[in-house]
Structure formats: C-alpha cells, structure tokens
Specification:
Largest sheet: 2 strands, antiparallel
InterPro entries: Integrase_cat-core, RNaseH-like_sf, RNaseH_sf, Transposase_IS3/IS150/IS904
Structural class: alpha+beta
Helix content: 25-40%
Strand content: 15-25%
Protein name: Integrase catalytic domain-containing protein
Order of helices and strands: EEHH
Number of helices: 2
GO biological process, one term: DNA integration
Oligomer: single chain
Distance between the termini: 44 Å
Pfam family, one: rve
GO molecular function, one term: nucleic acid binding
Shape: globular
C-alpha cells in the first residue's frame, strides 16, 4: 500500500531533443524545484545559455529562484 502524501515532480526538459535535463521528486513543492534547476545548471557547458520556461507558479516567480537563475547567468 502507498502513502496518502502528495508527490510532486519537478522536471526540466530539453526541448531540442526531448531529453530530461534534470528532475526531482518530493513531498513539498518548494525546495525540490530549486534542486532541479541547480542540477540542470550543473550539466551546462560553459558556452551554453539556455532559455528557461515555466508555468509561472509561485516557486518559479520567487526571489530565490530568480537568484539561482541570475547567479548562473
């Protein structure tokens, strides 16, 4: 039997080839979103500057998310 907790998936998909760049599963929809983008940033090559598109949910419009994106340039 499973638990009655909600499970959340945060995934970053490369729209060029459809591959999953990074993903995280969690029971809270806050911190794991930040983990997902950090993991994706770590896979970038120095000359890559991807465009990030989201559903504009509160995590993706938060100050913390913007700081992560700005830091990665």
């Amino acid at each position: 039997m499973g638990t009655k907790k909600k499970a959340y998936l945060s995934a970053i998909i490369d729209l060029h080839d459809g591959s999953i760049a990074s993903y995280e599963l969690g029971h809270s929809n806050n911190q794991f979103v930040f983990k997902t983008i950090r993991k994706a940033i770590q896979t970038l090559k120095p000359d890559e500057h991807p465009l990030v598109h989201s559903d504009r949910g509160f995590q993706y419009t938060s100050k913390k998310y913007k700081e992560i994106i700005d830091e990665a340039q």
